[in-house]
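Our collaborator T.R. sent over the components below with a one-line note: 'Predict the complex.' Nothing else. No constraints on interfaces, no templates requested, no preferences about which chain binds where. So this is a plain run: every listed entity goes in together, and whatever single assembly comes back becomes the starting point for the next discussion.
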Amino acid sequence: MNQLIISGSPHVHGEMSIKSIMWGVVIALIPAWLVSLWYFGIAALFVTLLAILSCVAIEYVIQKYLLHQEPTISDGSAVVTGLLLAFNVPSSLPWWQVIIGSLVAIGIAKMSFGGLGKNIFNPALVARVFLLISFPVSMTTWPRPIESRMAFLNFDGITGPTALGTLKTHLAMGETISQIKLPTYISLFWGEIGGSLGEVSAIALILGGIYLLYRKIITWHIPVSYILTSFLFAGILWWVNPEKYIDPVFHILAGGLLLGAIYMATDMVSSPMTPWGQIVFGIGCGVLTILIRVFGAYPEGVSFAILIMNAFVPLINRAFKPKRFGEVK
Amino acid sequence: MKTFAIGGVHPQENKFSASSPTEVLPIPAKVFIPLSQSLGVPSKPLVKKGDEVKIGQMIAAGEALISSNLHSPVSGKVEKVDDYIDASGYRRPAIFITVEGEEWMPEIDTSPDFIGEITLEGPAIIQKIKEMGIVGMGGATFPTHVKLMIPPGKKAEYLIINGVECEPYLTSDHRLMLEKPAEIITGIRLLMKALGVEKAIIGIENNKPDAIELLSKTAADYPGIEVVPLKVKYPQGGEKQLIAALTGREVPSGKLPIEVGCVVQNVGTAFAVYEAVQKNKPLIERIVTVTGSNISQPSNFLVRIGTPIITLLEKAGWNPEKAGKIINGGPMMGKALFSPEVPLVKGTSGILVLNRDEAYREKTEPCIRCAKCISVCPMGLQPYLLARVSEIGRFDIAENEYILDCIECGSCQYTCPSARPLLDHIRLGKYKVNQIIRSRKN
Ligand code: SF4
Ligand code: SF4
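Returned assembly:
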């Protein structure tokens, strides 16, 4: 008999691992990715592959040559960051800006905080906001679906605004909602609209979300409270003045709200850990998103809303504890 | 179907030995009886080297309040009272007996007859249980008679019987329920009488439909005894979880089940009580499951206390070359043994032998704050936080975050996708917090 192994209980381990979670997220993002390939063609393919490759390569280089650690790229977390970064930028973004985005996401937002599990802010969103501020033109130039399919590097004449962008500009020009020509719900639902690479198709994002729930990678708390709050808040505004404020369904389907609520706000590392904390977090995201969209300078507020709420997570974690068994009140 | 509300996991059940009837294991040539077999103070030896003992003769007395009597499981000669190396590698005192013949104490009823009629009164029943050295058979080994003495000012309303067997692999309680239903029900009636309660609820998980059916049928004549099927969920066998599942009551933090009018006993204990009271038979043998990937014939054995565990492993066909870990108990809460040369004790419900390839832990990764540990904790704690503060020595935070509520069920560590050794740190934290609290009172 060999030496026996001695360790404390439990002696068995469940099936879930970091790898299975990360690859689960990748699988959940595939439907939305396929839709974006369909509408935005080769440029979308190029941007996603480049973002993923550069994120993984940057993480590898930092771990191996800067920190002299064992690289952990096989855990899939850099792949997820790269994929989500690509989902949050236009398919026409120049290649070097994509790489800068990866550098910010992995280098600044993830590794300088201490690597996986230690970052406060969602890396892909930090990169997105960084790019938006640094390269406002290329980050707000949106290739039109289908027309831009075969375009690569040159997108002259085949770009247009996003649904939210159209809304904001025309409202600023003094038009009322009924005068503005906006995409139909059907095209918002399927994704035949301009926008960030992965945010366009509501149906594909929802499908992936159901998969994440089924695999127990996320829980309902953040997406539901986020979407419901946005809906209610936008609904109240719409009820007050439907000519000035667009209806709540539009708010949910347009822009990055679904992508944000299902995939970005639910990022485990940067979201609260208890059910009530998650609900509060989702409500905060929803309120901020609509506030920024309706009253702010930018047409879209999802990234800012989530990043602001990320900063509150340590506080939320302290304030909202799980319900204990046999709590003495 | 009923179950407890907060947390819980569902590990692979792996009940390989569920359909193997209990086999009587031959008496070994030598036994050694550790003096510490129940929670509390070790028993005091009553025999010395060279003494002749009979089966069922008392050989050590539990003199302290929380302590229990020990009886010889064999007849023969006391070889020595000396230290042995226990399951963790420590030296502990034990009584070593060399077996000679098979002579029972005359007052023990060794006939196979079933005795259903109860003649003793409550206090006499408790006295008998104490004399016969009955302890909790589910693994915690708390002396049963102590649990039956209700503190002044409290009242027992329900006797809760644990037939859950929520640990994966283990089947000893399952087999017992199938093979001795009438005895178990009589034991429950004895316990009800001892406690003065009108109602007993037997909780059984619904992965044992045969046991549910059989016990329901057997209990049908006694309106006070109810069998309740439970949804399979670990750790449903935990006292607080079982009470919550069956009665909806929550034992307050830091309190005992009697606070909500409940006393919990295991089915194995009910059987031992039957034998003690009706047949005058002390606790000298028990059913043990021997199972795991390393075992060629997963089995259930009726074994005398003090039998070396290696005897059981050999009988069930283990493979010493491939064995990586020998566990006393189930995979979730059992204790890894230092060597198979230790004796079987009253609290051993199973021996699980895992092959080397599945005995290692997975590689630990950084905490990704996924909160899975929180969502599975049946006590509603924050395991990642408790582990972290224990690791860095912040026991003040650990105490304020209710680390002492942790029942060490292991659900958090089982679930953690980063395979973090959460319970290792939490155990250390509990130990330290207890130490700090004790020193505070002085
Ligand atoms: S071992 Fe303790 S902290 Fe972990 S799940 Fe069980 S009760 Fe909760
Ligand atoms: S389950 Fe593990 S990785 Fe997840 S929060 Fe708890 S300790 Fe961290």
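Summary for T.R.: The mean pLDDT of chain A is 92.
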